[in-house]
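Handout for the seminar on molecular recognition.
Each group receives one record of this type.
Step one: identify the two inputs.
Step two: read the structure output and locate the region that could contact heme C.
Step three: write two sentences on what you found, then compare them with the reference statements printed after the record.
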Amino acid sequence: MKRIILFLTLLLVFFTGYYIFLKDRSLNQHYILKLEDENNISYDKIVNTRGAYITSMCYTKTSDTLTGPISNPCYSCHTKGKVPNYYNDTNLQEEYNFPEEVMKNPFTNLFTDRSAKVAVINDNTILEYVRESNYFNSHGEILLSMELPKVWKGYRPDCYFNFDEEGFDQDKEGEYTGWRAFRYYPFLGTFWPTNGSTDDVLIRLDTLFRQDENNTFDKEVYRLNLAIVEALVKQKEIAFDLTVDETFYGVDINANGVMDTANTISPHITSYVGLAKLFLKEEKVHLTAGLFPENTEFLHSVRYLDWSDKKDHVGLSSRMKELRYARKYRWKSYGEIQRAAESELWEAQSLDSSEAQIALFRGNYEEGLRNEIGWVYQGFIEDKAGKLRPQTHEETISCMGCHSHLGATTDSTFAFARKFEGVEKDQKEYGWNHWSQKGFKGIKEPRVEYKDHGMQYEYSFYLQNNHSGNEFRNNDEVEAKFFDSNGSIKEKRITELHSDISLLLLPSKARALELNKAYKVLVEEQSYIYGRDANIKAMVNVYRELREGSKTGIEKPIVRP
Ligand code: HEC
Ligand code: HEC
């Protein structure tokens, strides 16, 4: 009898569990089906099977005319990686050798003329639109995290964009969420606000990096671990704003061989501090130059261009175009990363095209897509009505090329290696703030080294070599500001740029509103898979189709040392 009761109980538990599972799954499916229906999109279907991870910028014509000067916008991405980035895709600067299936440019939105649709949107309408938050409701609650199905294997937004003076995010109760904002030199070209979007980047280390050895949250431990990660990832010494007693943490922070006090963090440091130090000893977390520890997360919101009369310049809008997320889900050693770099290429070449694409990035729209070196990526984007929705499988594939196959990245990422290094809170170049706290005004131009060119002002060098302010050479405002009518660079402007990057990065109000309107048209179309660039007119300097063997005319690629 007892056995029968036990058996029946187990049966009941099983079926209840199964029922709940089915119900959750159907809620999940219901959510996705509704989005598909409302937006006329498909979450699973992939149209551009071979090229969804390639970017629209790759199809740029490097010259306006057959005899004109050659522009090189390609070197920003296609360059020699710094170890442990084993990619060297410098050769892509020279030849348009796309896979056969995408010799025809799949990003057809580049050729759409949106002038008429842009013209009927008035300035106040667009300003109102971008100023309305699609991230918070009126109670300050995060809309997406309430709307996503209860069972959701991917990221559920949990950042409040509510920062203390050191960039730490706090929720509505004043608890630290672990997210910390930082300021960085925006990546070349497309990522400059003058080309369409503002953005921000935040980092979060795993909980154990925020705790002392007794498992208690400790802000100083967290600040130190973030600075340690910065020194490791940048592979350079990083200043710290406090003098640290090394004996207190039991770590030789400046790696000078003695336990003394330190106010710099050496890239040769061999331990984290606090609880992470204990985990490192047990090999439950790792520490290596050039790499983030496991479970590092990044958040990146891409926004419209808002205009502030008070500040008299462009800034972040409340509305998000996209919310992008990444997490290092698994540790990979140098050897594994190197093998991945070599084998991915091999894999892509040996399989037939659609299989190759799928083989490269495992995952789906719910969990995000994984690259071969331990990171998972996921994004949310505006639906037709301007609400954020998860990106489809194909939309998510678009993240993966930039975040895994380029010489330009640092452990798959961009911004952290470009973080400002000022340590005093009142300094202009203080790195640990959100853009809403301090902007671009008065920030000096960064300098970087290139092979055969030595140290160069990074943005000026780009203008000189690209003859324009973006890949497509359709930013008339930057061209008028920095070039004279016969295309020569205005030296006086360049000198001014050295001491204030906002001169280049920020568009005028008129340009900002136009770009916002053009992107809004794209949102209504939900046609992101055909290109997300905010162009108003059809682009001229872009190929619609390429013949095999077409050269760019770039004879001396520009490469990192
Ligand atoms: C913003 C970054 C970026 C810029 C700028 C850029 N590319 Fe790319 N390119 C990519 C990404 C991402 C991929 C897909 C990953 C890969 O294959 O490297 C790619 C792929 C390619 C490919 C196909 C390689 C393959 O095997 O699939 C070619 C060819 C190419 N780019 C040429 C160019 C040229 C020429 C330029 C300049 C006119 C350029 N790219 C500018 C990011 C960029
Ligand atoms: C054209 C190349 C490109 C594509 C495509 C792209 N990203 Fe990025 N991503 C960047 C750059 C460059 C930055 C740094 C931002 C800046 O400099 O303004 C960045 C920053 C980020 C960050 C912050 C951490 C870091 O790498 O700096 C996350 C997270 C991120 N992207 C996720 C995504 C997701 C998710 C997608 C797809 C929806 C995506 N990205 C598509 C180039 C790209």
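Reference statements: The chain has a mean pLDDT of 94. Residues 178 and 204 are 6 Å apart (CA to CA).
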